[in-house]
UniProtKB/TrEMBL annotation:
<dbReference type="InterPro" id="IPR051975">
    <property type="entry name" value="mtLSU_mL45"/>
</dbReference>
<dbReference type="GO" id="GO:0005840">
    <property type="term" value="C:ribosome"/>
</dbReference>
<dbReference type="InterPro" id="IPR032710">
    <property type="entry name" value="NTF2-like_dom_sf"/>
</dbReference>
<dbReference type="InterPro" id="IPR007379">
    <property type="entry name" value="Tim44-like_dom"/>
</dbReference>
<keyword id="KW-0689">Ribosomal protein</keyword>
<dbReference type="GO" id="GO:0005739">
    <property type="term" value="C:mitochondrion"/>
</dbReference>
<comment type="similarity">
    <text>Belongs to the mitochondrion-specific ribosomal protein mL45 family.</text>
</comment>
<keyword id="KW-0687">Ribonucleoprotein</keyword>
<protein>
    <recommendedName>
        <fullName>Large ribosomal subunit protein mL45</fullName>
    </recommendedName>
</protein>
<feature type="region of interest" description="Disordered">
    <location>
        <begin position="283"/>
        <end position="304"/>
    </location>
</feature>
<dbReference type="GO" id="GO:1990904">
    <property type="term" value="C:ribonucleoprotein complex"/>
</dbReference>
<keyword id="KW-0496">Mitochondrion</keyword>
<comment type="function">
    <text>Component of the mitochondrial large ribosomal subunit (mt-LSU). Within the mitochondrial ribosomes, required to direct the nascent polypeptide toward the tunnel exit and position the exit at a distance from the membrane surface.</text>
</comment>
<dbReference type="Pfam" id="PF04280">
    <property type="entry name" value="Tim44"/>
</dbReference>
<feature type="domain" description="Tim44-like">
    <location>
        <begin position="118"/>
        <end position="264"/>
    </location>
</feature>
<keyword id="KW-0809">Transit peptide</keyword>
Length: 304
């Protein structure tokens, strides 16, 4: 027989049993879930610390901070000029006219004017290059001339011997060709015929140009990409009279004398034409037809 339960416990058990038999009561819950929309976050507007750029610069100066000015222009380096200023005009035939004639007197007067301008230019060159001497320059110019022509097939050193104005003229149309050039001898000593100085952009940017007369004996042969001779001959030397212009950027402390161009007088003889390699077209054949001409006859027809 079970022991009797107290009165209080029996009432509690009856109450709990009644609650356990009742359906579950659902209560409504509220939760805030952030949902991302298309509106983006816009930062709050703050008042600027400095009202203007002038106020910012003044406060920086008071604080001891120096702001360098921002320059929009970029530096430009002009290593050479774009041409020959006051080009030397050689007399026709490179011979002097008698001073007793009218043409000879005019030629002598013109030569005196050019000599005065050359002397003034020499003084200006010596202000930048104290070692410049007219007597020693022709030999130096001849060495630069020979070295530049020997480097035609090797463009690595040609920029140090020729200016940016002369470089395209020297290497034009020799990309797929072989140039064989050699210096044989000097028929006459090289001499300076004209000296000029000029400035570009401003008066402090000075360039010097010296025109040297060279009468030499050279050999030249140009071969195409197939090894066929196009111009000249390697074993036949020719006498060449040239007026070569050398230029130096005097303002540049590391500048050097380089070839700048050549003066070709109007009375110079025409150059030998270049022999170009072309393909000789053969007979027109129909589709599926072969050329029955023997190889020997085709070779003789090409030679004819």
């Amino acid at each position: 027989m079970a022991a009797p339960m107290p009165r209080g416990w029996s009432c509690l058990s009856r109450a709990l049993g009644w609650w356990s038999r009742q359906p579950v009561l659902m209560t409504q819950s509220i939760a805030v879930v952030p949902v991302r929309t298309k509106a983006r976050f816009t930062p709050p507007a703050h008042e600027p610390k400095y009202k203007s750029e002038k106020d910012f610069i003044e406060r920086s100066r008071k604080a001891g901070v120096v702001i360098p000015p921002e320059r929009l222009e970029r530096p430009i380096h002009l290593a050479c000029t774009g041409g020959i200023f006051d080009p030397y005009v050689p007399p026709e035939g490179d011979a002097r006219v008698s001073a007793l004639s009218k043409e000879g007197l005019a030629q002598k007067t013109e030569r005196l004017k050019k000599n005065v301008a050359s002397q003034l230019s020499i003084r200006k060159i010596r202000d930048y290059d104290a070692n410049f001497k007219i007597k020693d320059f022709p030999e130096k110019a001849k060495d630069i001339f020979i070295e530049a022509h020997l480097c035609l097939n090797k463009h690595d050193r040609l920029h140090t011997l020729a200016t940016e104005n002369c470089f395209p003229d020297m290497v034009w149309d020799i990309q797929y060709k072989t140039v064989r050039w050699s210096f044989v001898e000097s028929l006459e000593p090289a001499r300076v015929v004209q000296v000029r100085c000029s400035s570009m952009v401003n008066q402090g940017n000075v360039y010097g140009q010296v025109t040297v007369r060279m009468h030499t004996r050279q050999t030249l042969a140009i071969y195409d990409r197939f090894g066929r001779l196009m111009y000249g001959q390697e074993d036949v030397p020719k006498d060449v009279l040239e007026y070569v212009v050398f230029e130096k950027h005097l303002t540049n402390p590391y500048g050097s004398w380089r070839m700048h161009g050549k003066i070709v007088p109007p009375w110079a003889p025409p150059k030998q034409p270049i022999l170009k390699t072309v393909m000789i077209p053969g007979p027109q054949l129909k589709p599926g037809e072969d050329c029955e001409e023997p190889q020997g006859e085709a070779h003789r027809s090409q030679l004819a």
